[in-house]
Write a structure and sequence with these properties.
Elements: E1 5-15, E2 24-40, E3 44-51, H1 65-77, E4 83-91, H2 100-115, H3 122-137, H4 145-150, E5 153-159, E6 162-167, E7 173-179, H5 185-190, H6 198-217, H7 220-226, H8 233-236, H9 243-252, E8 257-260, E9 267-271, H10 274-290, E10 295-301, E11 308-309
Parallel strand pairs: 3-4
Antiparallel strand pairs: 1-2, 1-11, 2-4, 2-5, 5-6, 7-9, 7-10, 8-9
Helix pairs in contact: 1-2, 1-3, 2-3, 6-7
Length: 311
């Protein structure tokens, strides 16, 4: 161990990428979480402080995502001789569909692994991050934690056994619009149909395959045509105010595509130009404000690094 303290950043993510429910995701440069972890004399993991959560997150280390997965990691490594204290700064909204719990889990695991001398690869850390997701939303999916941990675009080829594939990262800008409405992840999952029509499944398969092909070919027109969802978005979009109009505004102002980030309520759009992304998402924000709905906006390139050491 070369250091007794570390500060890290872990990025937010866009899960599903419209047509790839539970199997596709990508990371963004902003927003994200920052975390300071220190080695302590006493074994175990404690949470010193959390800021930016408005007091909503538990400080119980066994129940908080950021600490619970670190405890699991230490147990796996047989490191009962060491302790960590954690100070977490939430620099992203909770329950926004931006992978808030995933970013916290990834930040904690990445920091702990660094302080321990990197005994595990990032891919080996992934199951521990998924444990944190299961604790946070009742479902241990990887479409947020995989891109947050690995950076870029990721495909979850299978869950049993777990197999994650890194995809080419497009030279695109992502605009995120988080309307201040409440769409809990558990509720957003419960309204999804358990059965789908075969004809809808065929359309979805074609779109997913086409999207992945577009990433490899850097074919942005094809990418835009493939980012359509006939299974989940038609239902989930009903939970997001003015969704159809926001989509129309984005596409009319240069967006290649538009969709729901994770379970929502955040929506995202992809652009070839950063200036177009800024302009378009500002128009969307002003439209929501005209309907008395406040929102946060973020614009960034696709994150290629995953978590990074800040100091």
């Amino acid at each position: 161990m070369s250091s007794k303290s570390i500060k890290v950043f872990a990025p937010a993510t866009v899960a599903n990428v419209v047509c790839g429910f539970d199997i596709l995701g990508f990371a963004v440069n902003q927003p994200g979480d920052e975390l300071v972890m220190k080695i302590t004399d006493k074994p175990g993991v404690i949470i010193d402080n959390i800021i930016g959560d408005e007091g909503k997150l538990t400080r119980d280390p066994l129940k908080n995502t950021v600490s619970a997965c670190v405890i699991s990691l230490l147990k796996h490594l047989g490191r009962t001789d060491i302790g960590f204290s954690i100070s977490l700064e939430k620099k992203m909204p909770l329950g926004s569909g931006l992978g808030s719990s995933a970013a916290s889990a990834v930040a904690g695991l990445f920091a702990a692994n660094e302080l321990l001398g990197n005994p595990l690869t990032r891919m080996q850390l992934l199951p521990f991050a998924m444990e944190g997701e299961a604790l946070a939303c009742g479902h241990g999916h990887a479409d947020n934690v995989a891109p947050s941990l690995l950076g870029g675009f990721t495909l979850i080829k299978s869950y049993e056994p777990l197999e994650v594939i890194a995809l080419p990262v497009p030279d695109l800008y992502c605009a995120l619009l988080y309307p201040h409405v409440d769409v809990p992840t558990r509720d957003a999952r419960q309204i999804i149909r358990s059965k789908v029509l075969l004809k809808d499944a065929v359309i979805q398969w074609g779109n997913i395959a086409g999207l992945i092909s577009a990433l490899y070919q850097h074919d942005y027109d094809l990418l835009g045509r493939c980012m359509k969802d006939v299974i989940v978005e038609p239902i989930r979009s009903m939970l997001i105010p003015e969704f159809d109009t926001l989509k129309e505004l984005a596409l009319a102002n240069g967006a290649l595509s538009f969709g729901i980030s994770g379970s929502g309520p955040t929506v995202f759009s992809l652009f070839r130009s950063g200036a177009d992304a800024e302009k378009s998402v500002s128009i969307q924000q002003k439209f929501l404000l005209s309907h008395q709905i406040q929102s946060n906006i973020y614009v960034s390139e696709i994150n290629k690094t995953g978590p990074v050491v800040l100091g």
